[in-house]
Amino acid sequence: ETDALTNNAGIIQPLEMVNDRTMDQINYVVDANFDGSFTLIKTFLLGLLKRPEARILTISCIGDYAPVPRHSIYVASKASIKLLTKKFRGSTKCRLVLGSKNGEFRG
Questions:
Q1: Mutual orientation of helices 23-30 and 72-91 as an angle, nearest 10°?
Q2: Distance of alpha carbon 16 from alpha carbon 4, whole angstroms
Q3: Which segment of 4-8, 83-87, 91-95 scores lowest on mean pLDDT?
Q4: 49 with 93: CB under 8 angstroms?
Q5: pTM (2 decimals)?
Q6: Element at 93 (helix H, strand E)
């Protein structure tokens, strides 16, 4: 049985403009930052929903609160998992916690 799941996946490629990255490079970041977290949530969600004390903690990025030059791919992929976590929180009985790397946590 699982009591908690922490999503803290995050990789950053060199700081470059989106048009300087190939789709393979972009997909590499999105696959780790979004798909990795989504896969973990999907894998454990049914078990977590059976336990009212269960928690999912998603670590986001402060960059989705303010523009971060040349971090578009990273920030977009981390912001998408943040939004997914909010949607799960609104539609499941599982207690979801959202955090950002700046230490600000919201329950």
A1: 40
A2: 35
A3: 91-95
A4: yes
A5: 0.73
A6: none
